[in-house]
What does this fold into?
Amino acid sequence: MIFREAFRLFKSTLSETLLVLIIIGLLLTFGFVFLLTTFNLVRAADEYRKEVTLEVFLVDGIEREGVDRIKDYLLEYAEVSEVKEKSPDDALAEMSSILGSDLTEVLGYNPLPYSLEVKFISESYDIDYLNRLSADLALRDEVMEVHFASDWIRSLSRITNIAVMISIVLSVAVAAGVLFVFVGLHRDVSIRRRSVNRGLFQLGMRPRALQMVSLIWSACTGLIAGIIGVAMTWILWRLFDRYVLEIPFFDKPQIILLIIAPVFIATLSMIISRPIQLKQR
Amino acid sequence: MNDRVPYIKLDDVSFAYENSPSVFDDFNLSLQGGDGAIVTGPVGSGKTTLARLIVGSLKPQRGEILISGGSIHKISNSRRAALFSGWGVVSERSSLLEDRSVLDNITAAMKLSTARVGRKRGDIENILRKCRMYSKRKNRPESLSQGEQRILQIMMAIARNPIFLLWDDPDSFLDDERFEFAISEIRRLNLAGSTVILTTSHPDRYDYLNWPTVSIGGGR
It folds into this structure.
């Protein structure tokens, strides 16, 4: 009876509900597109962060034991994912390929030091951490100099933080907008539904059952709005992915979350709207 | 006496609308399960007020209205709904379900009844034919005349096989044929154990029911 009444409510308010759901769907699409952009920006930044290396230049003439010691010392850090050795010969070959000429032909010797390339687990480091680690390493006898692209990391962190903050603010704004529109719909439908609710109550339908009817209906409106939002975002993503730039879409858990969020907002809206008033005449 | 049937008791009930003279002063009425009663009085004597007091939509200033020993005003909305599911109430204030057809109104009334009536769709269509409402079974209440809305309320009440039936002002809106059908159905329900209260200004129309008459008016 509860589900049948919820379906009847949906059917009797179909045209009005659909119109509002399209408006909410557009609002959600706007929010979801921005979230997708941020999501891809953060993902790209994350990929770049994985490639960031700390270059540790070792003192001239360092012994094998010294290299192993500093290497073991670095691997003890939980944030360090990989330590790669670069011998002077490797460094020279790399530089020669960049410059197009052999430095030893000019200088008569290889001036490049033995070095270590340190990579990190992406989410576990920031600029402060790298500064502290660099200072710590610089104090060691085996180390001549430590270098990393601090400006680049700082810019990357700043861009990511700004994007995340804007996303949070925009998500809250979109959620508030969706809630506002839902409250309008639910309040309007609830007022029109009042006489039917009163009739059902007089016939013996319990207040809790009447509330369940409203909540099921509102949850369904939220679900449809969520599906509309995700579907429209998917269409826009498909066009962008095909004709502009290949980027990934949301993954499955994210899609489920994006669909469930409007269900939660719609249910909250129905609770705020206080739909059931059983005052009898 | 049938144990399923509620026992209705108005115990020293006093009621007055705001800034108005008293409608009831220490009014008493007691009905055992399966009883039928005609409450009579002139227009404005408080018949509809009495009906509203019984269903709990008005609260007396003094006294109590007891249903099966419990005060209608002291129970939760949930328990009140449970009570209503065994009742049939016909009055100008009874709400019809505006969002569905005549047939669906009757079906909902049956489905929400605790009596779990064994009526089938064919029985309902039979009642609709007898009330000359079959052709309007798909109409919504808003498209019905006042008389048709009233007969729909009666059909909904009858279809529920209620343990208590309250009909406020049966003389209004109905033509003779529909009236006779409705009264015969109510008599049948009463004989089957339903408690029935009819409020009317014309008690002589119901003499043949041989039910006790309670006169109201003059604040008693």
Remarks:
- The CA atoms of residues 41 and 180 of chain A lie 30 Å apart.
